[in-house]
Write a structure and sequence with these properties.
With 345 residues, this protein is α/β, with parallel strands linked by helices. It folds into 2 domains: 7-200, Rossmann fold, CATH 3.40.50.170; 206-338, Formyl transferase, C-terminal domain (Methionyl-tRNA Fmet Formyltransferase, Chain A, domain 2). It is built from 8 helices and 14 strands.
């Protein structure tokens, strides 16, 4: 009887948790888990894997560097044949993969070769995609370029949020891995070269979430949805305070004012902010500076008639030099001068 092949599961994110839970539930736990250490808890979607590894008595290594000696030693000590990566912001070096008899595979939330690179879930929404996929592929020298093993396609609702998409992708990754685990461990998994249109999505930083309230309402709404939890959130400045819009929606009834102006949007102190085309965005949850999410109606600072701070011309120029496809037309934008500063506070 051939010796059982052994595999390692690598993920530092909540995105990878459903697959690990399913592996354990189906009696197919990995022989080693590698996750992020606590000092990387600031990364979007971070989760501590210690609870699940302890409950299932799984060998567990916390590491900031997937190519470091600690991980290499653990792979050798546990006789790992295959590495499965499901959320890690670092390439696995060729020599690490070469030391594994079956190499490595990765799970990526885009229909590769479309969407290689970083922040695939926010970019899926920012680019207004109506369909996407989770792709299982063989790890290669360059990021997200390896041969395809399998993929699951899915529709993206017009009102999709990063929160909902993140949860859905996590479940689909679990399904995709479970149906391909045996072929991978038996070294008979497909290898289909990537073909078709190639796009590489760039890294996003928290500062990229600065809202341009002179943009069309649909663009403001899209940015808020794309950067919802576990991402840092879309934000605007108000009297020098950073106001992060955690969730919200466009109003079909509220009457707007000038771009950036707060207007009444319903009973019970419900308010909204006017966008560049006069459409009103109504936040459902906001946070002030580093505070926790709060009901916007509970914060007296947001009174109708006041204005969000005007973004700098530098910020607006940077936004307009690198437009997001499908991110609104020029006629829906108004000059930054239409926004007043926060001096009225």
């Amino acid at each position: 009887m051939p010796e059982r092949r052994r595999f390692c599961y690598v993920s530092g994110l909540r995105l990878g948790m459903p697959a690990l839970e399913e592996l354990c539930a189906q009696g197919r736990p990995p022989d080693l888990v590698v996750s992020y250490p606590a000092e990387l808890a600031h990364r979007c979607g971070y989760v501590d894997y210690e609870t699940i590894t302890r409950s299932h008595d799984l060998p567990h290594v916390r590491a900031a560097d997937i190519n470091g000696d600690e991980v290499r030693d653990a792979l050798a000590a546990h006789h790992i044949d295959l590495m499965v990566v499901a959320g890690w912001s670092q390439l696995v070096h060729e020599d690490v993969l070469a030391a594994l008899p079956l190499g490595g595979v990765g799970l990526h939330p885009s229909p590769l070769p479309v969407g290689r690179g970083r922040a695939p879930i926010p970019w899926t929404i920012l680019r207004d995609m109506r369909a996407s996929a989770v792709t299982l592929f063989h790890l290669a020298r360059e990021a997200d370029t390896g041969d395809i093993v399998d993929r699951i396609r899915f529709d993206v609702p017009a009102d999709a949020t990063a929160t909902g998409l993140y949860e859905r992708v996590g479940r689909l990754q679990a399904e995709l891995l479970m149906r391909n685990l045996d072929p991978l461990l038996e070294d008979r998994a497909p290898r289909r070269p990537q073909s078709g249109h190639v796009s590489v999505w760039p890294r996003r930083r928290p500062s990229d979430g600065h809202l341009d309230l002179t943009a069309a309402g649909r663009d403001v709404d899209r940015m808020v949805r794309a950067l919802s939890s576990p991402y840092p959130g879309a934000f605007a400045m108000f009297g020098g305070a950073r106001i992060t819009f955690r969730s919200g929606a466009l109003s079909t009834e509220a009457v707007g004012g000038q771009a950036g102006q707060i207007v009444s949007a319903g009973p019970g102190r419900v308010w909204g902010v006017t966008c560049g085309d006069g459409v009103v965005f109504v936040p459902e949850a906001v946070s002030v500076d580093e505070g926790v999410a709060a009901d916007p109606t509970s914060l007296a600072m947001f009174r109708p008639g006041r204005y969000f701070d005007a973004p700098s011309e530098h910020m607006l120029a940077a936004t307009r030099r690198t437009p997001v496809p499908g991110n609104g037309d020029a006629e829906h934008r108004r000059p930054a001068a239409r926004l007043r500063g926060g001096a009225e506070l």
